[in-house]
């Protein structure tokens, strides 16, 4: 699952950079959807299945549909029609299609590798559920909640 974590993380970084650098709002939205799905893959690879599912349902589903409707409502006139024709060219879709294909390959690899005995041993050695993901993300140092609450020690205690 480390392979899936690193690939999803790399895709999230690349897609987010394309969101920031793109001047076309529709292309930026496509890359934002890919970025949100990749972040969901990171959550799934850490064992936080509920957080990954919420990422897909809330962000990639509901909020992205809202963004698409706003962009559609901002259609300003004749020059926009020519711009929309430019969006439909095949070379525009190469980047999002490539990142989506890599993400699909990682998902298929993760699904097919679940019954692998090496993975079973890894899962049996680790804690189950989201506690492991929280411990992995917050180990050592103070978390934002601890800092906001004014707790001096902070951090998630490690199990011996």
Automatic annotation (TrEMBL):
Predominant place of localization: membrane
Entry similarity comment: Belongs to the complex I subunit 6 family.
InterPro entries in alphabetical order: NADH_UbQ/plastoQ_OxRdtase_su6, Nuo/plastoQ_OxRdtase_6_NuoJ
The keyword Cell cycle belongs to this UniProt entry's keyword annotation: no
Uppermost EC category: translocase
Superkingdom of the organism of origin: Bacteria
Location within or outside the cell: Cell membrane
Short name of any one Pfam family annotated for the protein: Oxidored_q3
Membrane topology field: Multi-pass membrane protein
GO cellular component: plasma membrane
Name this polypeptide is given: NADH-quinone oxidoreductase subunit J
Keywords: Cell membrane, Membrane, NAD, Oxidoreductase, Quinone, Translocase, Transmembrane, Transmembrane helix
Originating species: Salmonella enterica subsp. arizonae
Transmembrane segments: 28-49, 56-74, 94-112
Catalytic activity: a quinone + NADH + 5 H(+)(in) = a quinol + NAD(+) + 4 H(+)(out)
Function in brief: NDH-1 shuttles electrons from NADH, via FMN and iron-sulfur (Fe-S) centers, to quinones in the respiratory chain. Couples the redox reaction to proton translocation (for every two electrons transferred, four hydrogen ions are translocated across the cytoplasmic membrane), and thus conserves the redox energy in a proton gradient.
Keyword Oxidoreductase annotated: yes
The protein's assembly and partners: Composed of 13 different subunits. Subunits NuoA, H, J, K, L, M, N constitute the membrane sector of the complex.
EC number(s) from the headed UniProt entry: 7.1.1.-
GO molecular function terms listed in the Swiss-Prot or TrEMBL record: NADH dehydrogenase (ubiquinone) activity; oxidoreductase activity; quinone binding
